[in-house]
Amino acid sequence: MRNRASNTLSKGKIRQSWSKYNLYNMQRFRSPPTTNRTFFQQKWSAKAASRAYHGEQVREGQWKRMFNHRIRSVIPMNASDLAADDGSLVSSGRGSGLDKGGKPAYQTRPTPYTHMTFAPLERRLDVAIFRALFASSARQARQFVIHGAVTVNGQKMKHPSYLLNPGDLFQVDPDRVLYATGHTKTPYERRQGRLAQRKAKAQSSEGAEEAEAAPETEESKETAKEETKETEKEDTKETLKALLAQAKSVMSAGKNTLAPQRKQELRGFQQAVRRVLSRSESSTVLADSLEAQFSQLTLLLKAKRSEKPEKKDVKPRPEDAFATDRGDAEVASAKKDTEATASDKLSEAFAQATLGNEVDASELSDEEFDTLKRALTQMRDNPLDNSKTYSTPWQPRQYMSAFAFIPRYLEVNQNICAAVYLRHPVARPGSAEVPTPFGESIATPAYGWYLRRRW
Amino acid sequence: MPPRMQSRSVSNTLLPYLTSTSSSSSSLSSIPSLSSASSQCLSRQFSATAAPQAQTKLRRQMFEWLNNEGSVFKHHVPGETNYLTRLKQRGGNEGSETSRPFPNNQHFISEPILSEELRNEVYSRVVEQKKSVRVVSVELGIDMKRIAAVVRLVELEKRQRAQGKPLALPYARAVHEMVPTTPLAEKGERQTYHEPINDLPAHPLTGSQIFYPVPESRSFNRVEAGRVFSGAPAMEHSEATEISHPSDLAEKIMEDPNSIGWVGKGANARQILQPADVRIPHPHLVAQERDRLAHPNERLAVADLQAKRLERQDALEKERRERLQARREKKTNIVSPEDSRFDYRIKDTIYTTETTGVDGRGSKATGRRYGVPHRDRTRGEVKIPTRVEA
Questions:
Q1: What is the DSSP letter of A151?
Q2: I need a surface site. Which of A89, A278, A395, A450 has the fewest CB within 10 A?
Q3: Can you give the residue range of the structural domain that contains A389?
Q4: In this structure, are A37 and A160 located in the same domain?
Q5: Chain B, 247-306: which have a CB under 8 Å from a chain A CB?
Q6: Domain of A172: which CATH number?
Q7: Residue A432: its H or E element
Q8: Structural domain includes residue A310
Q9: Using one digit for the tens of pLDDT, what is the confidence trace for B185-212?
């Protein structure tokens, strides 16, 4: 199917997309004028505007078959109201309740039924993926489905037009979601990725050759080990200092730091941690859990907590990764955003830390421990990896927040990129669940257009 | 298309600048090719007219907006929504404005999602503390369907973590920063309700306007209104006096779902429309309120009554589920041969006019019938599945 859903500025149509063109179009969109226009013309232009957004990938005939004039709605009931009255109060007198100073017994807001015209389209798999914030446009969601990256109830589903049933669980490949919602790679990153790929290829071919010559090198390795043991004692202090400094620069990099510079810092920290951890006896530390890595790191560096601020102990945080992430969320956001409240606190802590370091390097304050740990957490959850299709460390793409909302009829688990279609969207007094950028003046004529059968 | 030519003045001013600052880090690679190309252009000119402007007016306006007013949308502020409506609300000071993503649509609100802690709390209450979905729904103010979905999703997440499958943790964090969330209440605080849990679906029968004369002296309640909407005759007086409040019906129907009457014949037969007290997801809340009204000063007694009611309801529902399951198992015979990948479910065919049609060749009938093409071969058959079994 040819993609006609380009975001042209001259037409100014609103699409199901997160692009900045679309944001601009949405911002400047005005309802078409109604004066001096026939009712047919009004309905036509309303239909054209709303169909450009709702199911633009669906043929008109297909949509007309899906359209239903009956619209689902609910009324939230109050248990105490129901208990107080069995309905006879409302129907008393001449059928509409007794007068109480001209006030009706129940005050309700009008239900925006016509905003729900395109509710049947929200059942489509591609639209639901876009609504769950797993793709940056309905077109991209459609592509994910066609390319086989989506499962419904655990089975691969290749039809974007599959209509979800209430209770269906759909899941998208997390890598695709990160690609769709993340920053695109810069040419620099792309080149780095290529270089890394080339290097890995060369190493794998070299590794095969080296395997034959391995026994000879073992002796030299052992001598090297002895040497490092001697030097180890002396440089623990300095390593700790350097690690801390690196963690600090990693966590507090402002938005004006150049991307390559930041990447270098991150890579440096990663290497430093790896170097320290490789000294430990157990060979599996590098693959171990974060807790194990952290405790090993502190053990190797002979770092102690300073005795003075005894607020909390080195208690193991909950295993659940999100809980540990919350803390570093503040920092991560401060890093890339204009708000710098969290980083203020950190930089203050570091100012104290640098003063303390001159006295004794192996005594760490709580904040320092936290920072070290946070840097480690971030390295694990959001690593620098140029082999990915998106810019790493992952960060949300620009202008995503203006489109970020999740309608009530979906329950989404972002960690595994899965969502459940709970029920069909409904209207309720004062609000409609179908996300549509158009107001009453477009929704009602568009509904009127489809009410009449023209085929 | 032949290469477009830069206007002379531009390339003249650009050239020395580019060559002099070749040491600067930006666009290092592009410099040699660019300078050679422009020097070529200088040497031979084909046209005296200047090339059209690089940007149209609309593009210029867009980038102007994006760089000024629109620049706030580039990045989000954690814990706050960042929708287009924030541009217009500068004058006003309404709090609800910030949760509307579309400036033209007054009726769409970006509703909060469950926070990670609340989600885990739901899971622990249902799976670890073994509370019923109905009870957890009332405690936390979350729809029962959503609770079932949350349990399913958390279960799936745990399995994927155990298997070491890739997760989208940074993405999840970013989304939770951008979208409003319902937090889990601190210990001792009251949990804020996530959504209305007692939604009554509007029944299509109630859409019609009916003129139904009733004497003013008679009280006309919801039970009677439901009968009028579905075209059922009025209840006998003795039957009507048994029901003191419509919520009595809820308990009666819970115990015996077949007690709902029917109207119409054959294909037009339908159940009588029940009052809202029966059709809402949590009818027991109405009963609890009635207990409270009846015994205003006995909180403990009311709570005790409610606990017993819920217990009975759970037991009844469980019994019904088991009965259904048993009946289904009785109907189908599952044969699973050894060293086979498949189970065979064998059902008895019911051969009546309803299932196979008058002439025995109905489109829904089972097996091969003379003159009826296979489903795959019929015209206009849609092959896209309509359901995927979980």
A1: E
A2: A278
A3: 183-194+362-395
A4: yes
A5: 247, 275-277, 280, 282, 285-290, 292-293
A6: 3.10.290.10
A7: strand A431-432
A8: no
A9: 999 899 999 999 999 999 999 988 999 9
Whether residue A49 is contained in a domain is answered as: yes
Task: Note whether residue A234 is domain-resident.
Answer: no
Domain assignment present for A120? yes
Residue B201 phi, psi (nearest 5): -65, 135
Task: State whether A30 and A178 are in the same domain.
Answer: yes
Strands A168-172 and B199-201: unpaired
Q: Which residues of B touch A435 (CB under 8 A)?
A: 101-102, 108
- Strands, E assignment, A200-284: none
Residues 6+ apart with CB under 8 A from A7: A13, A15, A17, A19, A21, A22, A25
- B314 to chain A, any CB pair closer than 8 A? The answer is no
Cα(A263)–Cα(A248) distance, integer angstroms: 14
The interface pTM score, or ipTM, of the predicted complex is 0.81
Give tens-digit pLDDT for B83-131.
999 987 655 555 556 899 999 999 999 999 999 999 999 999 999 999 9
Comparing A68-77, A279-288, B184-193, the range with the smallest average pLDDT is A279-288
- B128 touching A, CB under 8 A? no
Residues A69 and A121 in one domain: yes
| Residue A50 shares a structural domain with residue A188 | no
Higher pLDDT, residue A321 or B221: B221
Count: domains in chain A: 2
Indicate whether A369 and A447 sit together in one domain. Answer: no
Q: What is the pLDDT of residue B367?
A: 74
On the 0-12 / 13-18 / 19+ scale of CB atoms within 10 A, A448 is middle
From B103, B108, B293, residue closest to A435, measured CB to CB: B108
Q: Report the half-sphere exposure of B67 (CA within 13 A, side-chain side).
A: 6
